Amino acid sequence: AKRSGRGRSVVYASSLGAASRRMHTVEQALREGLGQGQFELHFQPKVDSHSLRALGVEALMRWEHPVLGSVSPGEFIPAAERCGLIHELGALALQQACLAARDLPGLSVAVNVSPLQLMEPGFVDSVERVLVRAGLGPSLLHLEVTESLMLEDAQAALRRLHALRDLGVQVALDDFGTGFSSLAYLRAFPFHTLKIDRSFVRSLSEHNDARAIVSTIVQMAGVLGMRTVAEGVETERELAIVREICCDEVQGYLVARPMPLPKLKDWLAGRPV
Ligand code: C2E
Ligand code: CA
Ligand code: CA
Ligand code: CA
Q: So what's the ipTM on this one?
């Protein structure tokens, strides 16, 4: 790279400049946006893989900025984590999700929780307060965490997960298959649910070995008493394979996209119960 000449390094430096300007813009806008109610949850159904009956929803944060337009969570969640606003944004998601759950009788509501937020002192108490205020049974709240949580301070993370379990909320391991999670982790951590990442699901219809691997994961999760969810199911063929390997639940565009609460209620009303 040192030998790449002046021209290339200049291009590199200026595009780096643009990226860091964008980062700065987004972080500034986050601060304002939180104060101005620009954030709203959308909800994506999770269904039983055989009956296709709705079992719950995952809450996904959406941000519509008056100038920047819609900014994806893939961009603003990491930005919020960098500038410390993830706690406020996370609390907002938790509140909105628990309030929405009152409108969705019998369905669980899953909220994504950043490791920074989960490890903050007082997190478990704040979850309890939100549940009480919303009058929501703890077992209807599911929290989705990624394995990055376990990498930093596994003992502290374990204590936190047990405290949540004691409270009665369910915890799901998200994006399984994208990182380094091993069998040892799954045995040691008290997850209720394993969510198999969509990159794995995608490879199901393409490679036989992928099917064997995912099938083994599903069986293993069963032995450990965990439910399994296939994420990002987009085709009938993927659904058929997911059923074949006995994965419990399905989430993905084939069933429904994430949508605002009123639209979700219409969608649910048109479904067999
Ligand atoms: P995730 O938790 O893995 O959420 C699933 C993502 O996959 C969502 O993207 C969803 O819209 C998308 N998806 C669902 N079904 C399909 C499908 O069939 N095909 C494809 N291609 N995609 C599908 P989204 O909403 O853009 O969210 C991206 C990520 O941002 C989430 O990934 C999650 O990690 C994070 N995120 C979203 N909302 C929150 C939040 O409130 N708090 C935190 N901490 N993170 C959030
Ligand atoms: Ca998730
Ligand atoms: Ca996921
Ligand atoms: Ca993800």
A: 0.98
